[in-house]
Amino acid sequence: MRALVVVMLVSLSCKKSPPVVVDAGAPPAPVLRALPSAPSTLSLLEPTDAGCEWRTMEPLSGATTALATLPGSCVGARIMWSPDTSKALVWFDPEHLTHSAYSANFASKPAFADAPRDEAARSRLFAVDVRSGEVKPLVMPPVSEVQQLEELGLGADGVPLAFFTETPRKLDAGAKSLEADGQSFDLSEIHEGAPTIARAFRFADGGWSRFETKLTTTGWDYALGASALDSYSKAGPRSTQLSTSMNGGDSAEEKEVEALKKLTPPKAAPDDGAWIFVGAGGARVYVWQVSAEFAITTGLIATGMPPATLPQLGFTDGDLVALRTSGPFVLVTASDVGTHPRLYQLPAAKRVFASDSARAVTFWPTTAKPESHEDSH
């Protein structure tokens, strides 16, 4: 039996206060760390001898904070935060390996090789309390042969979510409705793409249970897939979302385009791509975008007038990259996977951080503060 220590407190007026009972054998309460607040804070996963360490980093000082160490390799890592970023899921997905590139007769060879596929690897999922550092392994949601696990996420209540799509294998020609999960969906709403059922599951009591079903589509460029689910849009930020190559920006002005011609891929036709810019540190960062169904950002990035490519970037116009800004900082990573991060401080275009081993690298989602494109010049 653990000993109890009784402490008697006496006030200045000599009145006796009720005794305070302290359990001397109770473990100390965990010290909760503050959530990141600086707009320059990076989130990244780096391999260590102990496994895969999720950490934050301040790029100028180099100071790091270890949030959690997760067993196994960092390959395939993706992070899903709760909306307030106090909790997160870290999913090591063996299929989440490639950094995007594209093939065109005007494109340079991509700079970095894809991560090798580990045929023995299996998905691993961990829930992390960002403030306490507590880590809990979770079972992956089961996936049938006809289902596609599109994404995981965390809702505002911190409950893990899983988002699936399932395309019916047999659908009679001329069918007017589709039955699923006790609901009837009107197929007249579908004008393009393949009718598909989207489902959301939540994790509770050690298992996954369905709580939302909707009709959606797949198989065309504007298909919503699982993002048609209400719970999908209410989930917190995801590293894949923050590492997309479909970046926004403003079209470069005519005089800027003329100056950028010396950097444009020489074999590119006028319809193959265009220069856009984003703002950082009061300066403009120019990015070559490939024109497809959507405009997609490449690793051909420059700043200044006359323009010069970012020093020691490594990416080429054949790579698809994510480019994000926060205050005077510009972060460039391989699209979707967040690998090969290069961080620059503008307007000097000084490279302040780079890694070829880190994965899922982003600015901390709730602290990043992009500058207005229009304010840079």
Primary descriptors:
five-stranded antiparallel sheet; mainly beta; four-stranded antiparallel sheet; 377 residues
How would you summarize what this structure contains?
The chain is mostly beta strands.
Structure explained in plain terms:
The chain has 377 residues and is mainly beta. Among the domains are: 156-234, no CATH class; 250-375, no CATH class. 4% of the residues lie in helices and 40% in strands. A 5-stranded antiparallel beta sheet has the order 16-17-18-19-20, with no helix packed on it. It has a 4-stranded antiparallel beta sheet with strand order 5-4-3-25. A 4-stranded antiparallel beta sheet has the order 6-7-8-9, with no helix packed on it. A hairpin with a 2-residue loop joins strand 17 and strand 18.
Q: Which descriptor suits the 3D outline?
A: globular
Count of separate DSSP helical elements: 3
Q: What is the average per-residue confidence, as pLDDT, rounded to a whole number?
A: 88
Query: How many runs of DSSP E, i.e. beta strands?
Result: 25
Label the structural class: mainly beta
- Using only C-alpha atoms, the radius of gyration works out to 25 Å
Largest sheet: 5 strands, antiparallel
Low-pLDDT stretches: 1-17
Order of helices and strands: EEEEEEEEEEEEEEEHHEHEEEEEEEEE
Ends apart, CA distance between termini: 71 Å
Helix content: under 10%
Strand content: 35-45%
Q: Widest sheet: strand order?
A: 16-17-18-19-20
Write the layout of secondary structure elements.
Layout: E1 4-7, E2 20-23, E3 42-48, E4 51-57, E5 64-70, E6 77-81, E7 87-92, E8 124-129, E9 135-138, E10 147-154, E11 160-166, E12 177-180, E13 183-186, E14 194-204, E15 207-218, H1 230-234, H2 239-242, E16 250-251, H3 254-260, E17 273-280, E18 283-291, E19 295-303, E20 308-309, E21 321-326, E22 329-334, E23 342-345, E24 350-354, E25 359-363
Antiparallel strand pairs: 1-2, 3-4, 3-25, 4-5, 6-7, 7-8, 8-9, 10-11, 11-14, 12-13, 14-15, 16-17, 17-18, 18-19, 19-20, 21-22, 22-23, 23-24
